[in-house]
Amino acid sequence: MSGSMCTSVRVILPAHLRALVRVQGEICVDVDGEVTQRAVLDAVEAEFPTLRGTIRDRVTARRRPFVRFYACETDLSHEEPDAPLPERVAHGEEPFMVVGAMAGG
Amino acid sequence: MTGTRVLVGTRKGAFRLTSDERRSEWAVDGPYFPGWEIYHVKGSPVNPDRVYASQTSGWFGQVIQRSDDGGASWETVGNDFAYEGEVGEHQWYDGSLRPWSFTRVWHLEPSVHDAETVYAGAEDAALFKSTDGGGEWTELSGLRHHDTGHLWQPGAGGMCLHTILEHPIDADRLTVAVSAAGAFRTSDGGSSWQPINKGLRSGEIPDEDSEVGHCVHRIDMHPAHPDMLYMQKHWDVMRSKDAGDTWHEVSGNLPSDFGFPIAVHAQEPETVYVVPITSDSHHFPPDGRLRVYRSRTGGDEWEALTSGLPQQHCYVNVLREAMAVDQHESCGVYFGTTGGQVYASRDSGDTWEPIVRDLPAVLSVEAQTLP
Q1: pLDDT score at B95
Q2: Which terminus of chain A, N or C, has less C-beta within 10 A?
Q3: Helix (H, G, I), strand (E, B) or coil at A40
Q4: What is the CATH code for A9-100?
Q5: pTM for this predicted structure
Q6: Nearest residue in A to B58, CA atom
C-alpha cells in the first residue's frame, strides 16, 4: 500500500529506491506480529519484490553496508534485526527511514 | 536496414542515441535510471526491441532492467544471482583466499539463438543464464568450479566476467573471459570448461605462460568466422585462428599494446579496431592524442585513425565494454570515453564525429542496426 494515510507502519525509502518502484512519498505496510526491522523489511519486500537485494543482502539478509535505518531521530542501523522498533514507529506515528549512507560521487 | 540505435551505459545512467541509416543526425534520450551505474545495455539480436540493462549501485546492489520497446520504457526483472553449490574461494590481492561474493553484473549477452535467453557475466566471476527473459537466473557453475578457480584473482577493476561470445551455429559453445583469470570455452552448454590461454604471456604474473591468471580485457570475433578470435589483453593484442586453442601476438606497430576494448568490423572479418592506452598506470592515450587503430590484416599492421578525434590534450580512457560496430553496409564504429564523449564513424573509422560530448563517464557502448 502506498500513500501517507494509513495506520500501519510508515516507511520512507531513499529517492533511488522510490524511483525504482515508482512511488512518491512514504509507503505504508502492514506488519504481522511484533514490529521489528526484519518484519518491516519483509513486508516492504513482499509489497515491492524489486527491492529484494537492494536494502538487505540476498544471501545473508543483513543490511547492505551503505544503507542506514533511522527512526525517531535515532540511528537504528546497528540494532539487531529482530529487536522491537520504537513504539511510535509501530503505531504509525513516526516513519521508519531507509537511508543511503552519505558518500560523494 | 533503416535505423541505428546506440545504447550507452554510464556512471550515472543510460542513454539511447538514435539515427537513421545515414547516421548524420542523432537524437539523444536519457538519462534512464539516473544516478545509477549502468554497466551494460544490450539488445537482442533476435528481437531488437528486447533490450537489457545492468543497473548497479554501491548502495543498493544489482537490478536488471528489461525493455520490449527498444529502451523507451523499462521494467525490472530478476536480480537473484545466487552461486550454485559450494561457494568456494579465490585469490585475493594479497595472496590470501577469499570466498566468492556477488557484487554486480558487468555484461549482459542476449542470445543469438533465442529471444528469451540471455547470459550475465558477474563480479565475482561467474556466468549466469536466464531462459525467461531475465526473470530467473541460474549459474553455469562448472566455470567457477573449474579446477583452477582457486587460482583466479581480481584485476584492479574487480574479478569480473566481462566477455561472453556465443557460437553463431552451436548454441552449446560459449567463450568467456575473466579478469584476471583468462579465457575459457565450453562445448556442452556450460557444464564443463577448458582454459584457452595457450600462447598468452603476462609479465605481471609469476609464471608468465601459466594456464590461468591472465588479465584478458576483451575478446571479439566475427560471426562468420567464429574460430578467429581477437583479444586485447592487459598488455598485448592477440589473435587465435583455432577458437582459442592457441594465441599469437599481433600487436605489430601499435604505439602501445595496452588497452581495453577490441572490435571486429561487421563485414570484414580481418578488420579489427583497438584504442591504445599508454600503460597500465597511465590510463590515457599516448601523447594525449586519441587514436583508434585499425588493422585490415587481422593484426600486426595497424594504421592510426585520427580524423575528427582530438589530437592534443586528450587524457580520457576507453573502457573494455565501450566500443561497438553496427551492421550497416558502410560499417559504423562507436566508442565512448571516460570523459563522457561518444564518437561515431559511419565509414569504418576513416572519419569520426562526436554524437554527444558531455555524458557521465561511459562504461559501455553497444550498437543496434534496426530493420
Answers
A1: 86
A2: C
A3: helix
A4: 3.10.20.30
A5: 0.96
A6: A66
